[in-house]
């Protein structure tokens, strides 16, 4: 009887210990110990809100110099945070892709200024609606036409040095926009899953 009682006591202890141990791991986000949970999630949640409200559309990248001060402010803030290990890849994606977007937007804008006359003429040839400006959306549409229709003028532009460069920079912007959205969704997914697991573990205590 003594042995059975001891085994039951041990089982009860383990049932309490294991969820508590898992709770510590999950609450810390498999953390690296260099930054407390509040030190990361409080400012990061604020940056996530800013990212959600910031325009990363390549369609806004035109001849006019784009104000990227908000993008750079978010990037600077993200670089001051040390994410828990579980969030490290997503956090780094934000840093890499927002940096990529900011860099490529300025380079795209500079080339658009040089290629505006040629792009405008090509856009008129293909009856593209410009809405008063040339932007990366215009370039993307022209690039799509270049693979679907035979046009020596368009082909020559796409294969020229400034033409190929503007296509590349605009494509990079679309890719970065997509990756930022993926990271945004992944961060919120991790937070939701983490809260659900924590709540479930707490309910068993």
Notes on the structure:
This protein is mostly helical. It has one domain. It is 76% helix and 0% strand. The chain contains 7 helices and no strands. It has helices at 2-27, 37-53, 69-78, 88-125, 136-148, 152-158, 161-204. Helix 3 packs antiparallel against helix 4. The longest helix is centred in the last third of the chain and has 44 residues, at 161-204.
What would the keywords be for this entry?
205 residues; 76% helix; elongated; 0% strand; disordered C terminus; mainly alpha
Task: Please render the helix and strand layout as text.
Elements: H1 2-27, H2 37-53, H3 69-78, H4 88-125, H5 136-148, H6 152-158, H7 161-204
Helix pairs in contact: 1-7, 2-3, 3-4, 4-5, 4-7, 5-7
In short:
This protein has 205 residues and is an all-alpha fold. It has seven helices and no strands. Helices cover 76% and strands 0% of the residues.
């Amino acid at each position: 009887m003594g042995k059975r009682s001891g085994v039951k006591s041990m089982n009860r202890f383990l049932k309490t210990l294991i969820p508590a141990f898992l709770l510590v791991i999950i609450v810390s986000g498999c953390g690296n110990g260099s930054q407390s949970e509040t030190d990361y999630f409080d400012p990061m949640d604020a940056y996530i809100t800013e990212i959600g409200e910031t325009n990363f559309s390549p369609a806004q990248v035109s001849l006019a110099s784009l104000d990227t001060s908000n993008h750079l402010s978010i990037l600077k803030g993200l670089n001051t945070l040390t994410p828990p290990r579980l969030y490290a890849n997503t956090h780094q994606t934000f840093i890499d892709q927002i940096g990529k977007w900011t860099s490529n937007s300025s380079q795209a804008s500079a080339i658009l200024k040089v290629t505006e006359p040629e792009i405008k003429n090509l856009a008129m040839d293909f009856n593209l609606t410009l809405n008063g400006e040339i932007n990366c959306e215009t370039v993307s549409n022209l690039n799509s036409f270049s693979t679907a229709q035979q046009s020596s003028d368009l082909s020559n532009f796409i294969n020229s040095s400034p033409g190929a460069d503007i296509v590349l920079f605009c494509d990079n912007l679309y890719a970065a926009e997509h990756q930022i959205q993926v990271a945004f969704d992944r961060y919120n997914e991790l937070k939701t899953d983490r809260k659900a697991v924590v709540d479930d573990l707490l309910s068993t205590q």
